[in-house]
Structure prediction request, 930 residues.
Amino acid sequence: MTTAPSALPLTFSAEVAKARESGAAIVALESTIITHGMPYPQNLEVARQVEQDIRDAGAVPATIAVIRGALHIGLDDDQLSDLAQAKDVAKLSRADMAVCIASGGTGATTVAATMIAANLAGIEVFATGGIGGVHKGAEESFDISADLMELAQTPVTVIAAGAKAILDVPKTLEVLETQGVPVITVGQDSFPAFWSAGSELQSPLRLDDAGAIAKAHRTRAAMGLPGGQLVANPIPADEEIPAAELAPIIAQAQSEADAQGVHGKGVTPFLLQRIFELTEGRSLTANIALVRNNARLGAKIAANLVNLPR
Amino acid sequence: MTTAPSALPLTFSAEVAKARESGAAIVALESTIITHGMPYPQNLEVARQVEQDIRDAGAVPATIAVIRGALHIGLDDDQLSDLAQAKDVAKLSRADMAVCIASGGTGATTVAATMIAANLAGIEVFATGGIGGVHKGAEESFDISADLMELAQTPVTVIAAGAKAILDVPKTLEVLETQGVPVITVGQDSFPAFWSAGSELQSPLRLDDAGAIAKAHRTRAAMGLPGGQLVANPIPADEEIPAAELAPIIAQAQSEADAQGVHGKGVTPFLLQRIFELTEGRSLTANIALVRNNARLGAKIAANLVNLPR
Amino acid sequence: MTTAPSALPLTFSAEVAKARESGAAIVALESTIITHGMPYPQNLEVARQVEQDIRDAGAVPATIAVIRGALHIGLDDDQLSDLAQAKDVAKLSRADMAVCIASGGTGATTVAATMIAANLAGIEVFATGGIGGVHKGAEESFDISADLMELAQTPVTVIAAGAKAILDVPKTLEVLETQGVPVITVGQDSFPAFWSAGSELQSPLRLDDAGAIAKAHRTRAAMGLPGGQLVANPIPADEEIPAAELAPIIAQAQSEADAQGVHGKGVTPFLLQRIFELTEGRSLTANIALVRNNARLGAKIAANLVNLPR
Ligand SMILES: [Mn+2]
Ligand SMILES: [Mn+2]
Ligand SMILES: [Mn+2]
Prediction:
């Protein structure tokens, strides 16, 4: 599926513009990890590092954000640095991205919004940490991330280390199956659990090399199927927090949230902060490691796609 | 996004045909409010009044209905009058509209069906009372209005006073977020509650003028996003039934429904009738006021769209 | 809606290729009923019989499967025979079909995958036994078949004897309504219950002849609605197992599954096997009868479509 040229003006960084001209491999990156994932200056250091990982693996990074109403595909270092220090930046998804652009606002892109932007720019691969999913208690709250519906409809291959382990992962896999999203785990049979490499959940699909994933992406497009693929890339074994060790910590954080009456949009930040504290910072170290690992795999998949005819 | 010409023959009223030729602003209106919302002749009076409100605000009304197998975009006064007196008219949604047309039937259009028809006719704005949503108890019944999915996929901006307060509004907002639908409240931060201007629920987005809403609509289309926007327009303060006053009435109606074993498709009409009785008709007066208020805002948004390039 | 030529190479059987050239009526058939529905050689005999039923009714059968990476539209007798004896064949749905093709694998197509393939081949009608739906307990498990979402988005008319009665049929009908899928029962007002002709559930729509169903299909396409139609065709009265007789058997099978801790993907095969045993094979006889009945109706609808302009 060739992408129609975007009717919305896009602002390309010099590096991405050049890559587009030469037909080089490009990997999209989201920006909420910068604005909402870590404190300054660590967020800026990690953002630069992940971009460099992509370059080292032979592709060009395109960090995506909305800045004063312009949809940026690729940020230069000044823009990255400004975004890393900005306050009160909106967190954009499919529902609010157009309003932010139309209003001249600034916002960081979640998985859903980054997929939309990547697709507008003709970028087929996007590396992130973990996708959103079905929240625990969603059978009562109906709280389900728009990321899942985006995977069902926008033709971008998303590399993640699974869904964050604080979510209801079995229900997340069910929704992905219902919505027809390929869930492809790399190098193992079990679906990875973000900070932990493995889980007790079987992955629906397994492919072990970037070439096979690229070929599946192209086949899906040739079939006219509108959606993307979720590539579940386990955190490297020497950087994981084993599931057996993490499970009681997640459970403790969850019961603290319940006890303190934390609910709605407050739950995820609360849990992530408590897991950070209870693991003495290891959850953040693991998070950085898995994002970098995903960026490297994304670069390989993008490089393979360059060699496959559309 | 320019709309492809409809392959289905559409029947335009003289007034709408003329507006299309001259490029005038057009606002779609649904017809279930006529056939299922009020008794004759009040339904006809209100339908005429709402059409006139749109004309007074500088746009052309296009009431939509299926009459003997023809999809009408705009009704003349005889057709409006006939429809207002017709018996056993079907209530059409996405699932049954084509069968009705193919079978030569007559049907009134719900929010979903009106959006489909408006889009076929190239009309970008539609004013109604309240959208359908997630029904109370949907965690067990799975009873969720097709209106929500329509907002996710059909590029029409729908002006409503929120979702009817007898629905599970928090779950309705969750589904809209999951499906990527912009929910834009006008002039206040809280999401309106149909008969009441405010609620305890925060609106996901807020825009205070018709021009900004029109611009967001066009931006969304330029991004290739297929869906529409829900514009939540609070009932004017002097015509509302305050939430504190209405809440116990809704609760009473609900417990009467439970006690009498009313279920399924019978619940909504039962609740609306009991609320009408318990408010001594004020619920209907408020309903008319909010529809007219939405029609006026719709006309302003449509007028703004005329001046924005596609 | 005319279908764009598929960018994926399709492999047509000689019979289907000839039918395409001459513009003859074609009916798609799924292949999981062959690989996962019955033991060899009964599965082969039934597959041949159903194909012949379609020919006898004036159309051409196109059994669909992925064989060593090729998407086959129509199988010759050797291929049918090989598939009927193959071991460990994947069961393909929207999520995994492209991976199977890209990897050179072999797989049988479920309802969702068969709809996708039929649409790629320009085939508008597909006959099967029963569609997947909402599983019992889905309010907790979120286990909902991708078939329902496929009906919402792929323009193929699917003839089935309802949804398998081991599913939560009321919730299945709710999801179909939310997703805007026409559910059209033939010849009666109640929605059929697979092995039983009737049920206590009202069908949303009713059309009694193949011509009206074909016309509704074309009208839906002319309206630009992307999805298909579910045609619920009751099992012939003299071949049904009456609902009153079957209900306690299904309940017994279900409580045995619960007692033995069967869960997840194991439940459906367990229930079908126990129902087969408890009915002393009558469930299979009924299943074959209803598939043949659906094939004959599919042929009539396809023949009607040939005579309706696109
Ligand atoms: Mn949410
Ligand atoms: Mn409903
Ligand atoms: Mn399932």
In short: Chain A touches chain B at residues 4, 6-8, 93-99, 101-103, 112, 116, 119-120, 139-146, 148-150 (CB under 8 Å). The mean pLDDT of chain A is 96. The longest strand of chain A covers residues 60-67.
